[in-house]
From TrEMBL:
Residues 184-198 form the Glucose-methanol-choline oxidoreductase N-terminal domain. FAD binds at residue 142. InterPro entries: FAD/NAD-bd_sf (IPR036188), GMC_OxRdtase (IPR012132), GMC_OxRdtase_N (IPR000172), GMC_OxRtase_C (IPR007867). This is FAD-linked reductase. Belongs to the GMC oxidoreductase family.
């Protein structure tokens, strides 16, 4: 990662602070003293002269199993987020949890405010009394579902096979009623394929006996590919504090997660008059038949029909609506090269027209499957992501600042399947228009 030039901004280094919230509402963060102040008109329009937007009590209950809160450790620049976005032309949502998920806000997380730990296990598992019919096997990998295949037209699951490692003996659990497969977007098709349920050509090539030829298994894989503009900063970031162990990497510090987000639709991305959006829509509509014949990674007609249905739904119901096509994220968890501290403003595609697939290549369930996401195979994905990315320098230049020095130097990409690192995909040392 290289930084070509720096523009020194007016904002002084931001102070870090802990926040402690018992309720799902964000505490007001003191604005750093700065020549980069929020204009009065923007303050009046967004209500940001006072505290940051709060979660409306009517959008939340107080007695559910899952706690919702904010991280125990937050950065002062996150408090600048909504004001900065408002000045960059992105609306600030009055209540992101009231059914209208658009605009800029500080997201809540499933965090227990009492101890800043994730609240799902303590909400759903820990309160359960001992039960004979419940066993949680934390180190078990399901290797396949075993079927009674005496009636090929009506397979019945009779057991679930699992193992604790590739070399360990296979164990089985008998099934009396049903099996619910909830192994996630990658895990569920993988389990199905190893059980003989999936595209017959894939299963045969992998050496798995075909129980059911189901060509759609593993298809229509979509990922929120995002690309970010990296800014160098001389203040601490989550990555730098973690690396230096400055806070002892306590549970409170480790509860930090990127929470400053914005969801923007195409009129924000392409222009408020809607003309560019309409032109893009026509272009995509015209590209349907070519896309079906060239981009679907299957020759099966049901898979092609599925692609067409998703394509049309995205185009006709989401494209011209308030539904976001781009997610903007303020990223504080990456490290720069040579010990530099960096923050990034990312733009992520929400509804890509490029679909990929996941498929197995071996009959060993411990061999990783192949994932081909066909990123940016559809030209509309490139166009929308590019336009979304243009918001990043605009946000970087808007007040109040999110970083102390700005160097539009590197564009890096990440996907939700590869979040532990980022890979530069486009030109280095390039300024955005
Ligand atoms: C980086 C990232 C950021 C995200 N951000 C958000 C967000 O801000 N808001 C939001 O709403 N959603 C977000 N999501 C999406 C959200 O995490 C998923 O939609 C959600 O977790 C899906 O839940 P699930 O139970 O279907 O699958 P998962 O949460 O993926 O759970 C599947 C589980 O099955 C296990 N498993 C897989 N295969 C096997 C096997 N063979 N045997 C045994 N166990 C197996 C896996 O280890 C995993 O624990 C994000 C996802 C990612 C990756």
């Amino acid at each position: 990662m290289a930084f070509s030039s720096f523009i020194t901004l007016a904002c002084p280094p931001s102070a870090l602070r802990y926040i402690h919230t018992e309720h799902p509402q964000h505490q007001e963060t003191a604005q750093p003293r700065s020549r980069c102040t929020l204009p009065h008109s923007a303050q009046a329009a967004t209500g940001l002269a006072g505290p940051l937007p709060r979660v409306h009590a009517s959008s939340r209950s107080t007695n559910g199993p899952i706690h919702v809160s904010y991280p125990g450790f937050e950065f002062a620049t996150v408090g600048n987020w909504t004001g900065t976005l408002a000045n960059a032309g992105v609306e600030v949502t009055p209540d992101a949890y009231g059914g209208e998920n658009y605009g800029a806000y500080i997201a809540t997380n499933s965090i227990n405010p009492a101890n800043r730990t994730r609240s799902s296990r303590s909400g759903y598992i820990d309160p359960l009394p001992p039960r004979d019919n419940l066993a949680v096997l934390p180190n078990a990998t399901v290797t396949r579902i075993i079927f009674d295949s005496s009636n090929k037209d009506n397979l019945t699951a009779t057991a679930v096979e699992w193992a604790s490692s590739a070399d360990a003996a296979r164990e089985t659990i008998k099934v009396r009623k049903e099996v619910i497969i909830s192994s996630g977007a990658m895990g569920s098709p993988r389990v199905l394929m190893h059980s003989g349920v999936g595209p017959s050509d894939v299963l045969q090539a992998a050496g798995v006996d075909v129980q059911v030829n189901l060509p759609g298994v593993g298809q229509h894989l979509q990922d929120h590919l995002s690309s970010g503009l990296v800014f160098q900063t001389n203040t601490d970031t989550a990555a730098s504090l973690y690396a230096s162990n400055a806070n002892g990497n306590t549970p409170i510090f480790l509860s930090h997660v990127n929470s400053a987000v914005a969801y923007v639709n195409l009129t924000v991305v392409l222009g408020a008059d809607g003309e560019a959006t309409l032109k893009q829509q026509i272009r995509i509509a015209n590209a349907l038949s070519t896309s079906v014949s060239t981009l679907v990674p299957s020759s099966d007609h049901t898979v092609k029909a599925g692609y067409e249905a998703i394509y049309n739904t995205t185009l006709n119901t989401m494209f011209l609506s308030g539904v976001a096509q781009i997610e903007i994220l303020y990223q504080l968890m990456d490290s720069g090269s040579n010990g530099t501290n960096v923050v990034a403003i990312q733009a992520g595609l929400q509804h890509p027209f490029s679909h990929g697939r996941i498929y197995i290549t071996s009959n060993d369930p411990f061999v990783e499957p192949l994932i081909n996401l066909q990123y940016l195979a559809h030209s509309a994905d490139i166009a929308i992501l590019r336009e979304g990315l243009k918001l990043a320098p605009k946000i970087g230049r808007s007040c109040p600042r999110l970083s102390t020095r700005m160097a539009v130097s590197t564009i890096s990409s990440r996907s939700s399947t590869t979040t532990s690192h980022s890979t530069p995909i486009t030109r280095r040392r390039r300024r955005m228009p």
